[in-house]
Amino acid sequence: MKDEILEHIKNPLLKREEVKLIVTADKTPTFLDAAKIISDKFKKNEENIAVKNVKGKFGHETFLIAAHLYNSREDKEKIEPKPKVKKVIAETPIETAVVAPEKKK
Fold this sequence. Notes:
Number of domains: 1
Order of helices and strands: EEHEEH
Structural class: alpha+beta
Number of strands: 4
Largest sheet: 4 strands, antiparallel
Strand content: 25-35%
Oligomer: single chain
Shape: extended
CATH topology: Alpha-Beta Plaits
CATH class: Alpha Beta
Mean pLDDT: 85
CATH architecture: 2-Layer Sandwich
Number of helices: 2
């Protein structure tokens, strides 16, 4: 796998590095694969990396990866938006469910 750094910006205000690189691969790398590639390249821990996007063009083997590399996990948690959690609706048995009274006409 071949990679080339396009952009490397240090952002001291947000305590992170903003990186864009081009990766050559046979198939589209997942966000986890992209985080592993970036952690190997920049010697950072994978939990301190936030992959923003992985873009590729149809028929090409090159992919653009944009990511933010944080100095610590706490810095990442302060700045990055929290993932939305799906609400799980508890299944209620029919016997315990409350039935609404019918309306009078």
